[in-house]
Amino acid sequence: MDISVKNQDKKPKEQKNTTEKRRNHTDTDRSSIRFKNSLEKKDLMFEYYIYLVAVLAMGYAGIALFIQNKFVDRKKMNDVQQKSNALNAELKIAQKNNDKKKMDQIMEKQMELFPEMNNAMMGSMKVSMVVLVVFLLVAQVLTYLDPFIKDDQILLLKDDGVGCDKFASDGVYSGCFTNISGNYTSAIISGKIIKKGFLGFGEQPAGTNITQIYFDIPQQPDPDIERSNGGEIPTMILEKQTYTHNENIRIELKPKNNDTTDIIKAEAVFDNGSAFAVDLPVAIPINGEKRIHQPYWWFILISVICNLCGSMIMGRITKTNQKKNEQEEDKFEKEKNDNGAERK
Fold first, then answer.
1. How far apart (Å, rounded) are the C-alpha atoms in residues 33 and 136?
2. Lowest mean per-residue pLDDT among 7-21, 212-226, 260-274, 290-304
3. pLDDT per residue as tens digits for the range 169-186
C-alpha cells in the first residue's frame, strides 16, 4: 500500500518534470529559431547594403557624366588644346632653325592664348568641384546607412580613477565591457585616441590600434584584419586574448609616448565580426586584390568603371555625330557646287 502510494506520488512528479523539459526544449528551439531568423535578416540587410552602394555608385557616375557634358564646353577646350599644340610644334621648328623673329611671334600668340586656356581650365575646375560635392554627399549617406557600423558598440574609456580606471590622470584610459552572449566566436576591438582638429576646431582620430579577441576557443588571427591605422598608434592592453561569453572585458589604452596633449577622448569600438567585404571575379591590376574591404572603395571602383564605360559610349556617340555632320556638310557643299555649275 505504501509502495503504491509512493509510486502514485512519483508519477505526477515525473510527468511534471517531463512537461517542464519539453517546455524548456520548445523555448530553446523557439529562441534558436528567432536568433537564426535575426541572423538571416541581418545577412540580408548587409547584402542589400552592398547592392545599394553599387546602385549609388552607378547613379553618381551618371550624374557626374551629365554635369561634365552639360556644363563643360569640350569643343572649346579641344580647340584651345589644338591651338596650343600647334604653337608648340611651330616653336620647336623655329628654335631648331634659330629663327628668333618667328619665335617672338609664336610666343606672342601663346600669350594671347593664355586667357582662353585659363577660362577653359576654370570652367572645368568649377564642374569638378560640383562633382566632388556630390561625391561627399553620397559618402555621408553611405556612412549613415552602413549596417556594418551601426551594429558596433562604442565604449568610452576614461582616465578619472573611477570604476575600471585604476589611477586618475595617469595617461592610461580604461574601460570595462561585458560581452553580449551570441554564437560568434571572435570580435574586433579598435582602440582610438581622438584629438582636437586642425587649428583647434572639431576633432580627428590621432591613431587607432586594432586587435582581435576570441570566445571560448583560441583561434589564429585573421590575416584580413588591419592591425593599426593612423599616425600616433596607441598601446592597447587586454588582460587576455580568449574570453567566455558574458565575461567582463577590461581595456587599457595608452597614447603614444604618453602624450595626452589635445586629447578630447578615448574610445574602444567592439565589432562582433560583421565587416564589409565584396569578392571580385578578377584581381585588381594595380594591387592584385580580389576582395574589397571598405564600402567607399567598392563605391569608387563601381563609379570609375561606370564612368569609363559611359565616357567611351559618349565618345563613340560624339564621333558618330561629328562624322554625320561632316558628311552632311560635304553633301551640302557638293550640292552647292553642282548648283553653281548648272547656273554657269
1. 41
2. 7-21
3. 999 999 998 866 556 677
Query: Grid coordinates standing for 122?
Result: 576654370
**Amino acid letter, 305:** I
Distance CA(331)–CA(340), nearest Å, equals: 14
State pTM to two decimals: 0.55
| Cα 114 to Cα 38, 88, 221, distances in angstroms | 64, 13, 59
Please determine, for residue 31, whether its predicted confidence score (pLDDT) is greater than 70.
no
The residue whose grid cell reads 553633301 is 331
| Pairing between β-strand 263-271 and β-strand 153-157 as defined by DSSP bridges | antiparallel
Query: Within a 10 A sphere around the Cβ of 68, how many other Cβ atoms?
Result: 19
What is the predicted pLDDT for the residue at 68? 79
Q: Would you say 277 and 291 are in contact if contact means Cβ atoms under 8 Å apart?
A: yes
Q: Where are the alpha helices (DSSP H) in the chain?
A: 2-71, 74-97, 100-145, 147-150, 295-343
| DSSP codes joined into one string, 316-328 | HHHHHHHHHHHHH
pLDDT attached to residue 87 = 84
Contact by Cβ (8 Å): 293, 222: no
The three-class DSSP label of residue 214 is: strand
Helix 295-343 vs helix 2-71: angle between axes, to the nearest 10 degrees? 30
How many C-beta neighbours within 10 Å does residue 55 have? Answer: 11
Please list the residues that pair with 235 across neighbouring strands: 254
Cell of 104: 617672338
Task: Give the whole-angstrom CA distance, residue 301 versus residue 291.
Answer: 12
Q: Give the CA dihedral 179, 182, 185, 191, nearest 10 degrees.
A: -30
Burial of residue 101 (number of CB atoms within 10 Å: 0-12, 13-18, 19+):
exposed
